[in-house]
């Protein structure tokens, strides 16, 4: 990552709502409406943070079908670890993400049934 990308990522992780979204979605996939309640935030705040987290590939969205026929998205955290290393006057930020592929998601969904 570039220095600007590192700074943007660290700024995002410094945001209390972004952290709350990551924490909640690390437990289970959640809709934006559920995140609004759990994070005690307004819907626009939640959607803005989700967009920023998605830009950094820290959350992934899955399309869900409501029993009444409507579609909505749920979000799952992909962030596993962030490490910051300072060495010789330089800072390196490393992000570890989950690598759940389609087969893994299908298996998880099947097991949840």
Could you walk me through the main structural features you see in this protein, from its secondary elements to its overall organization?
It comes from Natronoarchaeum mannanilyticum. The model has no long low-confidence stretch (mean pLDDT 88). The chain contains 5 helices and 5 strands. Strand 4 (79-87) and strand 5 form a beta hairpin. The strands form 2 sheets. It has a 3-stranded antiparallel β-sheet with strand order 1-3-2. The chain is globular. The N and C termini lie far apart (40 Å). It is α+β, with helices and mostly antiparallel strands. It has one domain (3-112): Arc Repressor Mutant, subunit A.
Features:
113 residues; two-stranded antiparallel ribbon; Arc Repressor Mutant, subunit A; alpha+beta; 49% helix
Strand order in the sheet with the most strands: 1-3-2
What's the Cα radius of gyration?
Answer: 16 Å
Roughly how much helix do the residues carry, as a percent range? Answer: 40-55%
Secondary structure category: alpha+beta
What portion of residues belong to β-strands?
25-35%
- CATH class, named Mainly Alpha
**Secondary-structure element string:** HHEHHEEEEH
The backbone outline, from C-alpha atoms, is globular
Mean pLDDT: 88
Largest sheet: 3 strands, antiparallel
Total discrete domains = 1
- Contiguous low-pLDDT stretches (5 residues minimum) are none
What's the name of the CATH homologous superfamily? Winged helix-like DNA-binding domain superfamily/Winged helix DNA-binding domain
The total count of helices amounts to 5
First-residue to last-residue Cα separation: 40 Å
CATH topology: Arc Repressor Mutant, subunit A
Organism: Natronoarchaeum mannanilyticum
Pfam families: HTH_20 (PF12840)
InterPro entries: ArsR-like_HTH, WH-like_DNA-bd_sf, WH_DNA-bd_sf
Protein name: Winged helix-turn-helix domain-containing protein
């Amino acid at each position: 990552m570039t220095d600007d990308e590192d700074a943007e990522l660290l700024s995002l992780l410094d945001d209390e709502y972004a952290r709350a979204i990551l924490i909640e979605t690390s437990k289970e996939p959640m809709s934006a409406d559920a995140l609004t309640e759990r994070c005690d935030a307004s819907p626009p705040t939640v959607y803005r943070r989700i967009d920023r987290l998605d830009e950094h590939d820290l959350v992934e969205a899955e399309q869900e079908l409501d029993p009444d026929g409507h579609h909505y998205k749920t979000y799952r955290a992909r962030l596993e670890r962030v490490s910051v290393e300072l060495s010789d006057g330089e800072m390196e930020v490393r992000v570890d993400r989950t690598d759940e592929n389609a087969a893994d998601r299908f298996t998880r969904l099947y097991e949840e049934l």
